[in-house]
Amino acid sequence: MTKTRAVSITALLAASALVLAACGNTGQAGQTTPSVATSAPDTSGAGAGSSESSAPPATDSSASSSSGGGSGSSSGTATASGSSAPPSGDAAACGKPHGAWTAPASTGGSVNVSLNEGMTSWNGANAHSNSVYNAYPLNLTQANIQYYDDQLVLNNTDSFVTCKKIDDSTYSYTVNKAAKWSDGVPVTAADMFLTWAAQSGVFNTGEVQTDEAGNLVKSNAIAFDTSSEAFQLVKEMPKISDDGQTITLKYSEFFVDTVLSPPQPQVAAHVVAMHALGETDAKKATDDLMAAFAANFKDKKTDGDKIKKIADFWNTGFDFTQLPSDKSLYLSDGAYLMTDFKKDQYLTLELNPDYNWGPKPAIKTITYKFLPDAMASVQALQNGEVDVINPQPTADVLGAVQKLKNQGIETQTGGGGTYEHVDLAVNNKGPFDPAAYGGDKDKALKVRQAFLKTIPREDIVNKLIKPLNPEATVRQSFNIVPGSPTYDAVVAANGSKDWTAVDIEGAKKLLADAGVTSPKVRFMYADKNARRANEYKLIAASASLAGFQMVDGKNPDWSSQLPNTKIYDAALFGWQSNSTGVSSISPQFRTKQQNNFYGYSNPESDKALLTLNKTTDVAKQTPLIIQVEKNLFADAFGTVIFQFPDLVSFNSKKIAGIKQMPLVPGYFWNYWEWTVPAG
Fold first, then answer.
1. Nearest 5°: CA angle at 234, between 579 and 583?
2. Residue 17 and residue 662: Cα distance in Å, rounded?
3. How confident is the model at residue 174 (pLDDT cuts 50, 70, 90)?
4. Closest to 63 (Cα-Cα) out of 43, 32, 47, 40
5. Residue 492: is its pLDDT beyond 80?
6. Cβ atoms within 10 A of the Cβ of 64, count?
7. Of the candidates 558, 571, 574, which has an alpha carbon nearest to the alpha carbon of residue 643?
8. Do 449 and 638 touch, CB atoms closer than 8 A?
9. Could you tell me which residues come within 8 angstroms of residue 607 by beta carbon, excluding any fewer than 6 positions away?
């Protein structure tokens, strides 16, 4: 991680919720909703990614994030395990209530910030849209039920939604009657209900289908492209209050991260209903949507056609890469409104004049300029084209921004919440899939083991990361952040020591034993990402020594293509944390969960992960995490390389109030504290 507050980062269990990180905003992913992976930028300089699309990033826009329970932490502080339950009836059921917000003395001014990539969807909750470059703008246009501050304290925006723990299995959420979407339609419990309905899996009758290019295609089944570790356990129909403002969720069993899992409104229910069901009146559309879900819940043979239309629109109806002509597709219930969006150029947000149920920003206009090249973003900062950059840090980038001090450019560096890793696909009939060898699991395992033995992790850290952080080391855990209280114990027992050094001869022997000659590996990573390109070169050179045929799979759409293993065999990217909950481990590694794109399945791990989702005692969590990691290494799932460094540079003459934060949404977490300096 790249924050300077090592203690704060250390407090994170590496098992925090993840989002595809964009690394420097170009190679990772981030996530701000329960059980959703997002992509975030990689700020480590060498490159990192989160599912970049939900899914801890540096600033490299090639990372992803994934959140298992949600986007918060229990009772507002990060514990060693990151999960604990609030006392019954506690008002802090969604974090520490913030209370009333103070309006700024005045509003005005504008700020330009850089991102590596543009938005791809107004619905960041889906697997294919779980990225930081969606999460960052949505953080300013969505009213958020909860948020982390830079001390990793979880706060509840209770002026928007108040939360109550009724008992150990029952939670209620009440939305402020003043809250409304930017078309004037009130935000109600129906909007929170839709989040539960989509992410619970209760209404699904099949799985999401894609074409050869990885695009979602319609099928005969009901299949929402999203899921939540929390809401999968809410199997009863939620109750809606008579006034339509409160939703009550009852869990079928204890869940460790309920506090991190409020039903955050993702998109307007009335808009989904109007488009999916052909209604023109917002209230009638919402009523029809709710009635369809109620009828189908009682009898799966009833209104299935309506639920399918709703799911199909939820999945792709809000996907766009420039300003839609239909304003309903980008409604806001938050502090800012999107007023312009030019593909591959910029996105502009303006203050929402009607917003009074949350933070009150001072800056009138925020423009995101899309600059995929890290050094180009530094040049733009120098020229005054942008005021804030969060690029993928490299030695060259760091040196360049440090030379701009006399222009008032300030730079914050530190450890980030993203980690770099390589995952292998076992569901595409490629070199790592048993199906390629007539179902021979042992042969496929040996090929995976052989490939992982060639990845030069120490070389990558020494050449690409240590120039930024001389203390950097190879990360040896999939789920625990280096420096956290349990890291050493996990690493000592997880089997990672067997994969530390490159072993070309060992790889050759494994291939020979498997009877596999010159396997071809399609290796996907973020295009226009210098650090990742350098990582690939090092990996390809090493793997070729053992006989692997490496195919350069750099891809500008890598984050949205992660679910499409038809086009790659191995993927290099970064996961970025968006919460401190332990339930975030499960979406990556449990069978058929949202961020497990690769077909990985281990029944022993599945059992351990389900138990982990019910365990609050850190002493009992650690053995479960060790068991999962032992299996990941033994099964040759993939490997972990390093923790991202983070870098944010800004023009102190143009903007004040920038504060780094290792979780998604990064330095955007406190946009309401930003000001334009006088003069």
1. 25
2. 12
3. very high
4. 40
5. yes
6. 43
7. 574
8. no
9. none
Secondary structure (H, E, C), 56-69: CCCCEEEEEEECCC
pLDDT tens digits, residue range 649-659? 999 999 999 99
Residues 6+ apart with CB under 8 A from 459: 502, 538, 542
**Residue 314 in tokens:** 């939820």
| Tokens of residue 53, six digits | 């699309």
Using DSSP's 3-state secondary structure scheme, residue 442 falls into helix
Q: Which residue has the tokens 């639920």?
A: 307
* Bridge partners, residue 521, by sequence: 550
Indicate whether 3 pLDDT > 50. no
- What are the residues whose beta carbons fall under 8 Å from the beta carbon of 166, sequence distance 6 or more? 88, 89, 172, 248
Give CA–CA dist 139/144, Å, rounded.
7
Contact criterion met (CB below 8 Å) for 126 and 563: no
pLDDT in tens, 324-383: 999 999 999 999 999 999 999 999 999 999 999 999 999 999 999 999 899 999 999 999
Residue whose token pair is 């229910």: 269
Q: Is the dihedral of CA 672, 137, 332, 290 positive or negative?
A: negative
Angle between helices 189-200 and 304-316 (to 10 degrees): 90
Give the pTM: 0.84
10 Å Cβ neighbour count for 345? 12
**Burial bucket for residue 525 (CB in 10 Å: 0-12, 13-18, 19+):** buried
User: Which residues, other chains included, contact 377 with Cβ-Cβ below 8 Å and sequence gap of 6+?
Assistant: 24, 114, 371, 386, 389, 391
How is the beta sheet containing 239-240 ordered, strand by strand? Answer: 161-167, 170-175, 246-250, 239-240
Q: Distance between CA atoms of 131 and 576, rounded to whole angstroms?
A: 9
Instruction: Print the SS3 string covering 596-630.
Output: CCCCCCCHHHHHHHHHHCCCCCHHHHHHHHHHHHH
CA distance 423 to 426: 10
CB atoms near residue 604 (< 10 Å): 11
User: Is-contact 344 303, C-beta < 8 A?
Assistant: no
Distances, alpha carbon 518 to alpha carbons 40, 449, 456, 572, in Å: 35, 15, 19, 21
Q: Which of 279, 312, 282 is nearest to 123 (CA)?
A: 312
